[in-house]
Amino acid sequence: GALALFLLWILFATYTQKVLGAQAESGGQLMVPGFKSNSSYIGLGAVRYVFVGATAAGQADRAAAVPTSSSVLGVMQNDPGIGEAMSIAYAGRSKVVAGAAVTVNAIITCQSGTGRAIAVTSGDMAAGRALEAAGADGDVISALLFHPVRWSGA
Q1: Which of 117, 47, 116 is nearest to 87 (CA)?
Q2: The dihedral of CA 115, 121, 125, 130: what is its sign?
Q3: Per-residue b/e over 90-102, b at no fewer than 16 CB within 10 Å?
Q4: Antiparallel, parallel or unpaired: β 72-76 and 107-110
Q5: Percentage of residues in the chain having pLDDT higher than 90
Q6: I need a labelling partner for 112 at 20 to 30 A (CA). Which of 49, 50, 83, 120 fits?
């Protein structure tokens, strides 16, 4: 009785400490629910951690996301097939694939056609801040995502 309860408490405390430690390091994410992929990403290279945009009711695609489009939803966290559920983070810490060199702390948006992260320019939909520098196209970096907003400059 008491020993079993004590062991259960130790297991729970250990689990809680690990979960809280992981959240402190990577943070939680806010996710966009209810979207399915309307594209096949097979053969397109790295697709996880790219920006996606809404294309129709309940559908999204990375190629539809252009820097100035208000359809930008966030960063895809999985690699779905056609009609499969997409995991899309729009706030919190996430990995992103860079589309070019990006400096640390740069405000980022998505690159036309690829959905990769690039530095924002006036008129783009800003969607995050680079927490690491990217040296070139294809580098995977950490970013702090926020709800996409029209960027008019600093």
Answers
A1: 47
A2: positive
A3: bbbbbbbbbbeeb
A4: unpaired
A5: 39
A6: 83
The strand pairing partners of 139, in sequence order, are none
HSE-up of residue 67 (Cα within 13 Å, Cβ side): 17
Q: What is the mean pLDDT of residues 15-25?
A: 53
Taking all residues of the chain, what is their mean pLDDT, rounded to a whole number? 83
**pLDDT class for 97, splitting at 50, 70, 90?**
very high
Three-class DSSP labels, the chain: CHHHHHHHHHHHHHHHHHHHHHHHHHCCEEEECCCEECCCCCCCCCCCCCEEEEEECCEEECCCCCCCCCCEEEEECCCCCCCCECCEEEEEEEEEEECCCECCCCEEEECCCCCCEEECCCCCEEEEEECCCECCCCCEEEEEEEEEEECCCC
Which band of pLDDT confidence, cut at 50, 70 and 90, is reported for residue 103? Answer: very high
Contact 57, 36 (CB under 8 A): no
